[in-house]
Amino acid sequence: MQLVEQILLVSAVFIVLAASQSLRKHEYCVIGAGPAGLQLGYFLRAAEHDYAIIERGDRPGAFFETYPRHDTLISINKRRTDSRNTEYSLRHDWNSLLSNDEQMQMRYYSIKMFPKRQDLLLYLKDFKERFNLNVHFKTEVTGLHRLTESSEYRFSLETSQGQYHCQVVIVATGLFKMKSLNITGLEHTSSYDDMSLNPADYENKRVLIIGKGNTAFETAAHIYGRTKLIHLMSRNRVRLAWSSHYVGDVRAVNNELLDTYQLKSIDGLLEYDANDLFVLRRPDGSLAVGPKDLENDLDQTLFEENTRGLFETKLLSKIGNKNSSFSVELEGEGIVNFNYDVVIRANGFEFDRSWLPNVTTVRNGKYPKITPSYESTDIPGLYFAGTLTHSLDYRKAAGGFIHGFRYTVRALQRHLDAKRHDRPWPSLKQPLTGLIDTMVRRINEGSGNYQMFQNLGDVFIVDRAASSFTLLEEFPLRLLPSLPSASGHPVGRDSLLFVFAFEYGKNFSGPALDVFHEERASCSPEDAYECNFLHPVIYQYNSLPTDTRKAALKQPMYPLSLERCAMLAVMHGSTKPAESWCGGSSESRQDSAAMLRGWSAADMMQHGWKQK
């Protein structure tokens, strides 16, 4: 009997140990150990929070074990600048994560302007080890559930290694699922993620690549030297990064095919929605491609012919008769091509929400729908970080890329600190006499506002009574209406706010514009508000904005110069709005300048409050 009791006791101990191992509890559960997950882990560890990074792969940045398929990144590795200032240099370093160790920069891992994915993999591995980040590898998250209100924790995560209970869940998985296409005959196509990487497999082949983004052009560049011709197809025209100023558009490092197209060398571009295509394999192995609405009208015996001409002729005839929008390019020989040997789907990635079915998506399913504080609109307490927050600045700033989301990740952590731990947003408080010097320094050096223009900005809270100001760096501008609760900093009734952000002018780019014209970066100090290139803009608020449905920034001040217009606003903020000094006609601005003649910045700050 005693032996039986001992056996039962040992069994109970093992059961308790197994249960404790299968259930892990953390305040913050970060899903994904890519660049965003590691960056968030760094900040959570620095703040001494209880956290775990959950990663399904066996190493940090597992995405980059496969992608980009042809190895070369499109993020700039600017190793040298004119400044020794690390903050300034980060404006031109697109791969490094933020840390207090200057040796943890990508420039020490590659000398190439565009590093290889293997370089980034090594960098991320070293970053994880250097800061001893708590990453649980080989753990795949399969589900998320809300716990009862009485529970100590808010969420339960189902994983391949057991359960996690978490107060806050932050998804930083990035975009790793290829966009789906509704092509008839999809089985006859290959995908960017499973295509052959051996250029010899494309020798003397006619190739159709579906997509006109960086994945498509990267693929074309890799196989171009072996192919007979390459066509790229999408419903939209090509958008070039150097024209749009959006880093996610086609980069010059990938766009060699545009040369061959524009210089009349067989290759071409097609404008058509690939979801309306059919792909049929002919007996000779070639692929017949055309609009779905014509598929049933074609004589099936056409696909038994060994020659392609008959099919092309009849399909072209049908297109003409049906007024189809199928747009084609003429080859050098004047023959319209509808036959290919290879069709590759390279139309980009989207958010995988298979384990989050209740999360709403935006941008045609590409991103989860989130609030300005990076929180899910559907599940309170569920946050997103990294590329998945790019919906807030899509086709504008760099929030979908390392050099942008390293700053939004930091903003998220600062916001959570203020909201959950009563730790106000890090700030700098100084006498009012230092306002202009501080503002100019941030304009000249700050990297977060520079990369996340129009989305992150510096907020200067001016306390008139104390003749001092408080600076909050890189604050999400859409959170301005809720600044006190979002940052932990009160804004008094008598406070004056200046907000500095970088912006492009209205006519900085566009399909019909010459982005290399002589006045492309014309920014004279006296008319800086008319600058069309990236430039600093200062907004003045006599009270917090209240409309959360629109962008937080209102009409900017139109300064004579950064210093003089800001001083006028400070001097007359309580009795005269800044617009009356900095807006209006050029004559009124000249009158304002005449009044200031002979005043230094220090004079204005010391005596400005007495001016009426």
Automatic annotation (TrEMBL):
Keyword Oxidoreductase attached: yes
Family matches, as Pfam families: Pyr_redox_3
InterPro entries: Auxin_biosynth/cation_transpt (IPR050982), FAD/NAD-bd_sf (IPR036188)
Residues in the signal sequence: 1-18
GO CC annotation, single: endoplasmic reticulum lumen
GO molecular function, one term: monooxygenase activity
Keyword Transmembrane helix belongs to the record: no
Gene3D superfamilies reported in the protein's UniProt record: FAD/NAD(P)-binding domain
Entry's Gene Ontology BP terms: ERAD pathway
Keyword entries, A-Z: Oxidoreductase, Signal
Full protein name: FAD-dependent oxidoreductase domain-containing protein 2
